[in-house]
Amino acid sequence: MTTLSQTQPRQPLLKTALPGPQTRAIMERDAQHLSTSYMRPYPFVPDHGEGVWLTDVDGNTMLDFFAGIAVSTTGHAHPHVVQAVQEQIGKFAHVCLTDYPQEITTRLAERLVSHIERPGEKWRVFFGNSGAEAVEAAVKLARNHTGRTHIISTLGSFHGRTYGAITLTGSKTKYKRGFGPLLPNVSHVPYPNPFRPPLGSTPETCGQAVLNHIEGLFQTVIPADEVAAIIIEPMQGEGGYIVPPADFLPGLRALCDKYGILLIFDEVQAGMGRSGKMFSFQHFGADGQSCQPDIVTLAKGIASGLPISAMLAKERVMTWPVGSHGSTFGGNPVAAAAAHATLDLLEGVVKHPGCGANLMENAREVGDSIMAELRAMQAEFPFLGDVRGRGLFIGLEFVKPDGSPDGALRDRASMAMFERGLLNLDCGEAVIRISPPLILTREEAQTGLSIMREALASL
Ligand SMILES: Cc1ncc(COP(=O)(O)O)c(C=O)c1O
Question: Pocket of ligand 1, candidates 39, 268, 297: which has the most ligand atoms within 8 Å of its Cβ, to mutate?
Answer without folding.
Answer: 268
